[in-house]
Amino acid sequence: MPETETGAPPRTLLVLAAVLVLVLAAGVAVAGLVMRSGRDENGALALVPVDAPQAAAPECAQLIPALPAQLDSKGTALTRRTIAEPAPPATVAWGAPDAIVLRCGLGKPPELTQTSQLRLVSGVQWLPVEGPGSSTWYVVDRAVYIALTVPDSAGTGPLQEISDTIAATLPPVPLRF
């Protein structure tokens, strides 16, 4: 029976449509692979703005370029991450998916009191503040307050490396309560 009597489209048109669908699907798959390989593996990190009244201080301008390009976390090298715009000033991040974030020039942490339990790491006094899944460590003995937020899975390597850099870059000052 001829195709025109059944009302179905011609066989040639059906084959052409199937080939076009396959070519389109292959094109979308290839485009997806190409776009993924062109992206930064870690992606830009979006950060919530935090009040940092001294982010433009000379101490932050001195510290930020002195920070290491990578941190060691339990034997894994964590490289610096790009921070999404608008990027907070005097802020650096390392690693993915859970980033380590350093912010310089913050206001005095409200948890800092005369009875706070401080930790001394490489000559730098830190105030640890635990949170869900991470801890934020505040440097409290320099001319500017600095916060280092570290995921619980990171270990102590990043804190040690940042302490070494701060000790070598910024002189200590008396605690301010």
Walkthrough of the structure:
The structure is a single chain. The chain is of the alpha+beta class. It is built from four helices and eight strands. The chain folds into two domains: 3-38; 58-169, Protein Transport Mog1p, Chain A (3-Layer(aba) Sandwich), CATH 3.40.1000. It has helices at residues 3-6, 11-38, 58-66, 157-169; strands at residues 70-73, 76-81, 91-94, 100-106, 119-121, 124-130, 134-139, 145-151. Strands 1-2-3-4-8-7-6-5 form an eight-stranded antiparallel sheet. The chain crosses the membrane at residues 12-35. InterPro entries: DUF3515. This is DUF3515 domain-containing protein. Keywords: Membrane, Transmembrane, Transmembrane helix.
Structural class: alpha+beta
Report the CATH C-level class of the largest domain: Alpha Beta
| CATH fold type of the largest domain | Protein Transport Mog1p, Chain A
The main β sheet shows up as: 8 strands, antiparallel
Strand order of the largest sheet: 1-2-3-4-8-7-6-5
- Strand content is 15-25%
Any idea what the shape is? elongated
Total number of domains:
2
SSE ordering: HHHEEEEEEEEH
Please tally the helical runs, counting DSSP H or I stretches of 4 or more residues: 4
**Low-confidence stretches at least 5 residues in length (pLDDT < 50)?**
22-41
CATH structural architecture of the largest domain:
3-Layer(aba) Sandwich
First-to-last CA distance: 96 Å
Q: Over all CA atoms, what is the radius of gyration?
A: 27 Å
Number of strands: 8
Mean pLDDT, as a whole number? 86
**Percent helix:** 25-40%
Transmembrane segments: 12-35
Protein name: DUF3515 domain-containing protein
Keywords: Membrane, Transmembrane, Transmembrane helix
Pfam families: DUF3515
